[in-house]
Amino acid sequence: MARALLEALRRRDVLADHVRTIADAEAMARIGTYDVLVLDRRLPDGEGLDLVAALRQRRHPVPILVLTALGTVDHRVDGLDSGADDYLAKPFAIEELLARLRALQRRGPALSDRYLSFGNLSVDPRSSEISIAGSLVEFPRREYLVLEALMRRPNRIVTRPNLIEAVYALEDEIGSNALDAHISRIRKKLLMAEATVEIRAVRNIGYLIRTKA
Amino acid sequence: MARALLEALRRRDVLADHVRTIADAEAMARIGTYDVLVLDRRLPDGEGLDLVAALRQRRHPVPILVLTALGTVDHRVDGLDSGADDYLAKPFAIEELLARLRALQRRGPALSDRYLSFGNLSVDPRSSEISIAGSLVEFPRREYLVLEALMRRPNRIVTRPNLIEAVYALEDEIGSNALDAHISRIRKKLLMAEATVEIRAVRNIGYLIRTKA
DNA sequence: CTGCGTGTAATGTAGCTGCAATCTTCGGCT
DNA sequence: AGCCGAAGATTGCAGCTACATTACACGCAG
After folding, report:
1. Is A116-211 CATH 1.10.443.10?
2. Which of A16, A139, A196, B206 could form a Cys-Cys staple with A144, CB 3.0–4.6 A?
3. Which of B12, B81, B106, B205 to probe by mutation at the A interface, max A CB count within 10 Å?
4. According to CATH, what is the number of the domain A2-107?
5. Over the stretch A8-48, which tens digit does the pLDDT of each residue have?
């Protein structure tokens, strides 16, 4: 399958590389600069959509087309919502695939980043704006960064080191409860704005954001 | 058909406008700012793909999804190659359409050199002219460049390095608050002209332009 | 020469942010 | 169950830093 595709691409003077595993694909995406990534879902070392999600999480801008046998509407919706830009199910016409690749390449790499929303809270990483219950709420920089980091993984624990890294990118900062202080201030604002989410501490590990009981 | 779609979108709090003809669609695209354009092919006054081609010819950046009964592979290829970003044939599942619209909206508009307009401010990169509330306002070169860079990504943060790069293309220019000074002067002019947009600082990162509260 | 554009520097300022002191909560242990 | 220690929560405060603004000087163009 891959071989046939590579051959078709080569015949049209499209340069392409091929790898078999998610791990390799991730490495290639990290190093190389590609116009488009074509991805199957059922791969030797896992589910292709996990790679999509991982790349998007890191804000990797490469356009991604998922090409797979899993073709129900639900499959398609899942694929697109995981961050893929197009989804084509087998069987497919090679000409259509090529046209879709052209469309993706034409459009270029993404500039945008997904709106993060959870409960009645939504975060726009592009403008660093946060709205709660529909109205804009101002957050200072560091508080914003903490909240954004939490919102990138709602319902999941984000470790203290991760949070500190998110806020103090390179700068060194150790030995204080600065992070706790930020959390506290964020909580106060969430309360003020009547957010339906809350930040819970996970002892010895970190924090997570989740919907209020 | 259009009514059903509008209803489905409205139910999900997606704002949408609907027109019946190519002429109207063209007018709307020219005036308004839309995240995505959904287009049928067989329209009362012509072939939808002609509109796609016309918009692309003018470098219109809006993502376009063609939604039509014409669903052969050739139809699809033609649609995509005319400049559309996605092509969905009837019959289709509403959920898939919505997912595809999300994907397009996520990715955002293509870069372009057409009129940049936001709020009551508009910038013509070709002539380097700026109008506020309909009347032309003179900006010196450097101020113009800063404002254009911001207007290329309204509501998004533009980093200081990006801005500096935009203004001082090759020349070396470090160690001063020249950029801040420009921003300040631009702000003064925006105020004078009663612009409905404002420039906000994002601490430690850069600036962004957005509509005034 | 004059006027505008632009970089620099000085100065002002707001409000973020880290800290520490104190209080509260939680989990483990007997 | 109850106690204790440690982790987390909270809050006032003070220093500071990044940004804002203004004035000024230099340079180039008409």
Report:
1. no
2. A139
3. B106
4. 3.40.50.2300
5. 888 887 888 899 999 999 888 876 667 899 999 999 999 99
